[in-house]
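pinning this so it doesn't scroll away 📌
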Amino acid sequence: MFADLVRRGISHPHAVAFVKRAVITSDEPDSKVDVPAWGIVLLYVSFMVAVVGISLVSYMLHEVITTLCMVESPIAAITVSPSSADDKDAAEKEGLLETGPTITLVNQKPITASIRGTIKHLVAHAGRWARFRGLRIHFAHSILFSLASTFLSAALPRFPGQVIFVAALSGAAVANVHAAWTHKVVSMPNEKKFWQRLPSKADWKVLALPAAIESAMPYVSIYLTCGAAMLMGLHHVNGENVRELNGAQSASLIIRSILLVVFAITCTLFLCLPSIVTLVRIEASILPEDQDTIVPFDRTFGGKVVSQLMGGSGKVGFLDAWRSFNWEARRRLIKLFVKSFLILTGMVFVIAHVLIAEVFVVMGPAMGHFLRKAQAGEI
């Protein structure tokens, strides 16, 4: 997710080395930078608060709210309005029977159509911390998925596309944990423990395939995008080649780069997005019927699923899970992702400027001297 990319970028060895060079005192007298202890504490605390804040907001937007959007089934409200006096007079004149109230079906606006509305709904029904619900299970799933991936990567021989195969097996292995997280996010508050939320072994057979596909699709998209880049000759591009290009070649490079970005977005929309939506909706279909959902949810999936109480399986099929997610819901989900991206981008922009301002305040004029020497390649 977006916050993961930010954390990886900040924790990259080159970034860490740059910060160390900026704050550690050098042996050369002319390059000595005195950084007060309170300044180092301020920078570290600010950095950690920024990382935690971005991670929590990213989890709320990209995990909790989007999952509710994937599950929500908008409902129609029944509006009953009494007959007006004019209608009664007309009925009496025509000699008709007594008219009753007028019943109208009004399509309600989905709860997840608005980020603010979704948060208010969560807080009203599950408390102020509901916006981060399921966070501990999410951590457990991430750790278990990483352990499974590490073990399988070491155990399996190297072959082209191994990362896709490993991701699929890891996703299938921890499918029940991800389903428990989904149930925690979409259900009304209850006293069930983590172990009680885990689906049964029989349910794992239903979850394994969609979980494997969902885990593998991001890597499939990366492979396809890299293949497209190679077909367009972008893998030969480097700094020296770019400086030697003429006007027409530069325009061609820009066009090919834009096409590659469009191709990557297309892979995300048509491969990654359907896989995660399908998995979440299948997981929601096995939610015990004695548990209510925090957003409206059609357990019949448009009449395609028969409840277990009525003699059916109560589980939605792989294709029906995606087909029942109509175009209106898909557009709502895409808009939600775009809004989340803009919010997180704005947060990163503001936080980066705050951290830079703190660095200049802490280091004073020495910061400018350090940047000049770094630009000249003397550091």
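📌 and the second one:
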Amino acid sequence: MSILNLKDQSLLRTQSYINGEWLDADSGKTFAVTDPSNGREIAQVADLGAAETRRAIEVADQAMQGWKKKTAKERSVILRKWFDLMMENQDDLAIIMTAEQGKVFAESKGEVAYGASFVEWFAEEAKRVYGDVIPNTTADRRSIVIKQPIGVVAAVTPWNFPNAMITRKAAPALAVGCAIVLKPAAETPLSALALAELADRAGIPAGLFNVVAGTAAPEIGAELTSNPIVKKFTFTGSTPIGKLLMQQCAQTVKRTSMELGGNAPVLVFEDADLDKAVAGAISAKYRNAGQTCICANRIIVQDTVYDAFVEKFTAAVNKFSLGNGFDSATTIGPLITAKAAANVHALVVDAQAKGASVTTGGQIDTLGEAFYQPTVLAHLSNNMRIAKEEIFGPVAPVFKFSTEDEAIAMANDTEFGLASYIFTKDISRVWRVSEAIDYGMVGVNEVAISSEVIPFGGVKESGQGREGSKYGLDDYLEIKYICMGDI
């Protein structure tokens, strides 16, 4: 009997999905998926390994031979059904997500809609994959360029956005004629398996969307990166793991796209609307309990408004309500594991030991080992771990700067370059700073910068490639040049 109050209990799947069939592990092994808010077991899920992954890759290769021959419109119609089913089952998908990931239910519903938007977008965008006719070099030749699906795609996705990180990889792959083999995070496989159930109902042919759930990440990953049938590997996760996967993919020269770690700065200049800057920084920092790659990791405020900002910011943080994501009064849920909370606390302890002051929070909460109090740190210095490392929790360090040049230097003093945010009323400064900071995305007086229509991605060690937007199809397509002679 399921412990989740779903309208459609058949969305709670515990087997993996390969070639249109629901399968147990060859070994018969399972692993537990638990609710991070209370540690309660939600389900036992089939624990697959390399052998099953290899079979998924092989059937994907066979399945896409017919799929890629369909017209873009034929593929689009099927993907549109998948989108419709996701939205029709939004509440159930959100319940599954909150149960296994911990985020507030309203945020989970928002993520389902966000995830579905990629399916809708790429269902339409696939109809606009255009080629080129190149001007002649000689009178008797014609040169044309066409675009074709790259081949079988392997995807490894994280636990912090267990729906949207899947659809923004799977949707473009399927839209252009590829097949995909997905390895979801072991902490949150149920959301992926629910998507597979809906893909099946939508009529996506067997073998095109395969979900391999398992705890043996190195074993499954090694198969995905080494198998020569796989032509494209896409990953969202930490920079160290991304680097390892890129090394492994190099052996078969796969195309890779990597959405890796971040260290997002929020630059607040003295001419900014302070109330809007506080509200923006709050939203950027504490969404999903601070567990997003584009979260505000460093709030960098001009010295003339620093004290006022910290006071207003702390007052706003004190209004948060920590608790179970299903409680309507909750505004911040637990972290994914007790270990994650302990890691966040270690950063706070290090900062305090080096002179930082805690204006609110600063402790693992009595609600449970995975709950970390919404925290604000002031009076920080660059020798603290929190200045360099991705926090991935509800802790906001507020740094101080004096000049625009200093702010730019502080923002760029990191190996990461994913998202960044600027608050200022000076349009000249907007241009100067936006161009000077080394980030793939810049929000100006705005932090809600992500949607299906924008190119999401970073520079430096935050990754390569772009997801979403018209550019999001490029990584799933090969460019073929055809020269026609004797015309």
